[in-house]
C-alpha cells in the first residue's frame, strides 16, 4: 500500500519467522528469493480517537513496564511458592508507584494486555516462575513476516517430488513408524522451523532405514 510519502505492507495468511539467524525457513526464503518484511521494533501507540500518544509518555511507561518485568524476574528467584505473573506485576506496579495517573495507567494496561496476547493466556493464569521458559529456545536475529505463509515454502520444496495419496506402504513385512512435528522437538516447540527440522530428522531416518534394508542389514532398534 502506498500513500503520501508512506509505503506499508499488509499480508493475509502470512507467517512470522521468529528470529532469522540459523532459521532454516529464513535460509529457504533467501534461496528462493522471497521477500521478507522486517517486523519493526517501533510500535507507537494511539489513543482510541486516533491521536498519537505523546512520544515521551509512551517511552516512559514502556521503560517502566520493562523495568517491572525485570524486577518480576528477580522476584521469582526469591519466592518459594508458585504465584501468578499478574499478581507479581500488580504488586510491583503499586510498590514502585508506576503509572499512577489515568493516562499512564491506560498505556500500562496496554502492555499487560499485549503480554496476555503474546502468551495466549491471562496474566492471572500464567506462572511467574515459568511463563517465559521457552525464551532460551528463540532463534537470534530480527523477526520477519513471510508473505503468503509457509505454504509457498512447502510447494517449492515439493516441486518434482512424487506425492501419492491413499496408498498403503509395504515395508517388506516390517513396520516402521516415524514421528515428526513440532510436538516432537524439545529444542524449538510450537514453531514452524521446529516442525520443519523434525521433518528433516525423520526423513534422514527413513532414508537410513531404506538403505539398510536394501543392503539386507539387520537394523538394531
Ligand atoms: C494461529 C497460529 C499461528 C501460528 N503462527 C506461527 C508463526 O507465525 N510462526 C511459527 O514459527 N509458528 C507459528 N505457529 C506454530 C506452527 O504453526 C506450528 O508449530 C506448526 O504448524 C506445527 O507443524 P506440524 O507439522 O508439527 O503440525 P500441523 O501443522 O498441526 O500438522 C499436523 C497435520 O496432521 C493432520 N492430522 C491430524 N490428525 C490426523 C489424522 N488422524 N490423520 C491424518 N491427518 C491428521 C492435521 O490436519 C494437520 O494437517 C502458529 C500456530 C497457530 C495455531
TrEMBL record:
Name this protein carries in UniProt: Amine oxidase domain-containing protein
The similarity annotation says: Belongs to the flavin monoamine oxidase family.
Q: Which organism is it from?
A: Solanum verrucosum
Lineage start:
Eukaryota, Viridiplantae, Streptophyta, Embryophyta, Tracheophyta
Q: Which GO terms describe its molecular function?
A: oxidoreductase activity
UniProt xrefs under Pfam families: Amino_oxidase
Q: Where does the Amine oxidase domain start and stop, copy by copy?
A: 11-160, 175-206
InterPro entries membership: Amino_oxidase (IPR002937), FAD/NAD-bd_sf (IPR036188), Flavin_monoamine_oxidase (IPR050281)
Amino acid at each position: 500500500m502506498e500513500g503520501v510519502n508512506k509505503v506499508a505492507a499488509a499480508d493475509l495468511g502470512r507467517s512470522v519467522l521468529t528470529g532469522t539467524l540459523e532459521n532454516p525457513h529464513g535460509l529457504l526464503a533467501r534461496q528462493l528469493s522471497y521477500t521478507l518484511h522486517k517486523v519493526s521494533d517501533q510500535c507507537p501507540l494511539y489513543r482510541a480517537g486516533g491521536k498519537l500518544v505523546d512520544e515521551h509518555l509512551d517511552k516512559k511507561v514502556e521503560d517502566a513496564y520493562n523495568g517491572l518485568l525485570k524486577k518480576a524476574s528477580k522476584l521469582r528467584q526469591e519466592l518459594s511458592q508458585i504465584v501468578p505473573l499478574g499478581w507479581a506485576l500488580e504488586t510491583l506496579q503499586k510498590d514502585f508507584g508506576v503509572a499512577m495517573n489515568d493516562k499512564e495507567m491506560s498505556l500500562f494496561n496496554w502492555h499487560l494486555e499485549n503480554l496476555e496476547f503474546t502468551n495466549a493466556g491471562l496474566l492471572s493464569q500464567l506462572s511467574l516462575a515459568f511463563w517465559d521458559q521457552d525464551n532460551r529456545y528463540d532463534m537470534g536475529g530480527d523477526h520477519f513476516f513471510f508473505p503468503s505463509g509457509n505454504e509457498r515454502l512447502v510447494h517449492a520444496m515439493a516441486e518434482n517430488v512424487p506425492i501419492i495419496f491413499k496408498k498403503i506402504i509395504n515395508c517388506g513385512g516390517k513396520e516402521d513408524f516415524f514421528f515428526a512435528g513440532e510436538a516432537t522437538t524439545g529444542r524449538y516447540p510450537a514453531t514452524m522451523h521446529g516442525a520443519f527440522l523434525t521433518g528433516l530428522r525423520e526423513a534422514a531416518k527413513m532414508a537410513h532405514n531404506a538403505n539398510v534394508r536394501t543392503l539386507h542389514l539387520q537394523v538394531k532398534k
